[in-house]
Design goal:
mainly alpha
């Protein structure tokens, strides 16, 4: 009886459980909802959002209220698109604000008029912050001073390619670094020659007995 009761308890043995679980898991992963969830996560990963924004949105997508096909295929992708648009708009408005700040010192700078007109056109057409920074540097080369930039609330953009002039060899004091004379390595002692073993003494020849007369 004990054996029967034990087998009764173990009707669902681990092997069967794992098999059933795998089948169930496979069925769940192939449902339209699971596929929609996976597709949305891929969209989030490929988006232009920051890592923090991506993590927050993926976490939100796992909430039970979004556990339906409509939200996964319509509501959440729509939210993602809005977040990306907001990000673009923010970048655009920051760029426009920076352009506006730059126009005043550029207008007042002592730069040749033809060059100034060219720079104004470039500013108007700049699409990114990086492009605008290059134009600001170009204006500085043409005669705009760093003080005029700072007065307008702008910083001089950092140049990525540092020119070799920045690091002049004269700055380094030669006396600081005395050339160290490399120590001459001691010659390895020549190993003493092993003493040649003495030749074994040749045994004296036995005296030949005198022949009897």
């Amino acid at each position: 009886e004990n054996k029967d009761s034990e087998t009764g308890k173990n009707d669902k043995n681990p092997g069967v459980k794992i098999d059933d679980y795998n089948k169930q898991k496979e069925a769940e992963e192939n449902t339209p909802l699971a596929k929609a969830k996976k597709a949305f996560i891929e969209k989030v990963n490929a988006s232009s959002l920051s890592d923090d924004q991506k993590a927050a949105l993926k976490e939100e997508a796992e909430e039970p209220k979004y556990d339906n096909l409509y939200d996964q295929e319509v509501t959440l992708p729509k939210k993602l698109a809005q977040m990306e648009q907001a990000l673009k708009a923010q970048g655009k408005s920051e760029l426009e604000a920076k352009k506006e700040k730059f126009r005043k010192p550029l207008y007042e700078a002592k730069i040749e008029e033809g060059k100034k007109e060219e720079l104004f056109t470039k500013v108007r057409e700049a699409k990114t912050n990086e492009e605008l920074d290059k134009i600001i540097l170009e204006a500085v080369e043409a005669g705009l001073t760093e003080k005029e930039l700072k007065d307008a609330g702008l910083e001089l953009p950092k140049v990525e390619d540092s020119t070799p002039e920045d690091k002049k060899p004269e700055d380094k004091k030669p006396e600081d670094k005395k050339p160290e004379t490399p120590e001459t390595p001691e010659k390895p002692e020549t190993p003493e020659k092993p003493e040649t073993p003495e030749k074994p003494e040749t045994p004296e020849k036995p005296e030949t007995p005198e022949k009897p007369e």
